[in-house]
Write a structure and sequence with these properties.
This protein has about 550 residues and is α/β, with parallel strands linked by helices. It folds into three domains: about 140 residues, no CATH class; about 240 residues, Mur-like, catalytic domain (UDP-N-acetylmuramoyl-L-alanine:D-glutamate ligase, 3-Layer(aba) Sandwich), CATH 3.40.1190.10; about 150 residues, Protein-Tyrosine Phosphatase, Chain A. The chain has an eleven-stranded mixed beta sheet, with helices on both faces. Strands 20-19-18-21-17-16-22 form a seven-stranded mixed beta sheet, with helices on both faces. Strands 1-2-4-3 form a four-stranded antiparallel beta sheet. The relative contact order is 0.09.
Length: about 550
Amino acid sequence: MRLVEIRDLDGPNIFLLQPAIKLELEIAESDLSSDAIAALAASLEPLAPSDDERAAGADGLGDLLLAACADLHERAGVEFPEMRWVEMEAPGHWSLAFGWERRRFGLGVARLLGAVVSGEDVDPHAAAERLRDLLDTDDPDDRPGMIRDEDRTIPVIAITGTNGKTTTTRFVAHILRGAGRKVGWTSTVGVFIEGENVLQGDYTGPAGAWRVLREPGLDVAVLETARGGILQRGMACESNDISVMINVSADHLGLHGVQTVEGLASVKGIVPRTTRPDGWAVLNADDPLVRSQAASLHAPIIWVSQEPENPTVASHRHAGGRAVVVEEGWLVEARGDDAHHLARLEEMPLTLGGTALHMIENALCAAAATLAFGLSREEVGHGLRTFGTAPEDNAGRLHIYDLNDATVILDYAHNEVGLRHLLALARGYLRGEGRLTSIIGTAGDRTDDALRDLGRIAAEQTDRVIVKETRRYLRGRESVDEMTALYLEGLVAGGNPPHVVAVSEPEALEMALRDLQPGDVVAMMCIESGPESRARVEELGGTATVTGAVRQE
């Protein structure tokens, strides 16, 4: 039996909706025999007294460890915690998770159990006696970082999903600020207080949320909430008032134990699961993995959909429920049979005249969240019509330029769904005999199949492909050559169109622009050099036509 990880989670997580300690083990089949479990039980004496009838298998092992964990708490005079024994998605991996209020003690319990099951020479009885000493501290960091409901002073809107989080977060903040609310928000690019960037970097985990919630004078916090923060730290707050779950698709699989898209949906589902019963959960009825979260929620739901006859929405409305949908070119708020117009799609800059379906999805979610917050339809409609009129509204997400009668699109696409959205939009800008050139490449923390799929999608949907190497975002890969080889495998599988490899993102853009002809379109997954690439296109005479977001965080 191998100890994989001990992790302290400061807030609601995939195991418990409270701070939890996770002890993850890799278990071989031989560890689950009756003899192996009996031997482990003997080594845990007297924490978990031996039981000749103790069951074999994973359940028997779990019962033994749960009993030992409970005994360690009892010996130290600590209130009995909530505990779970959970099978993980990685084959052979199981986790013991238990609630905690004192970090050093909780980690001490986990380390002791981990040492025993790993076969270390340790006296569990003597070690258990020493655990009580770990409770003797006044260090505030020994307590969970989670902000409890009684300590939170402003409402929280938490936004999750695979694609669209950053754009929707910005959209919600824009609408709220336009209605006179003072807003702090977090995103993949930083923490913002009333539009001022106070922290730069990816702050979609608890640290960014805590920074916003410590800021005095705000009316509301809008928190982009990514799977990495949930898995590594837990949620920042005990609950939220409004949650938004936009969509779920394959991304970052193979990291932190999440192997499947269904597992990813469960991680992101913690956000609506922690929505207060008197709040609102905004869910995308067009996404089956999002729909599947509904049964586990305590909060009422506002469904959003681009299909007015979506069965989930139709039955919800029939029962008098709330929804925000697209009907005859309008975003519409509906309650039962009543429906009220919010804004026309063609009036909303980010929807590109109603052609960017993924952006309509973001707009639906932003509208539903701000209506749930209590804004009027007029206030929401104004925000829908004005977001995206300025480049800074959604910097880095979908910048479209006219350049010498051709079109250059720079977007922060970084996964397969983002690339499909980008290329679908790009094809609409082709004119005459124009060619579509794609520039592809992403970070190394994707599966091999994901990198192959980027090459295949580009090959199938564009006339020419430029593969850009990235040394900045290897993220565990041994070399950039390894990634390039996977992209090229996908290109061959997709039809092997003309293609070249560029040593960097700026070099890839230069290659694409050298022989740009009228009617051509360049669509670039721009993840490393956004400001520099935009400046270069503008230096060459490019004129921005719209700012929005095709790839969505």
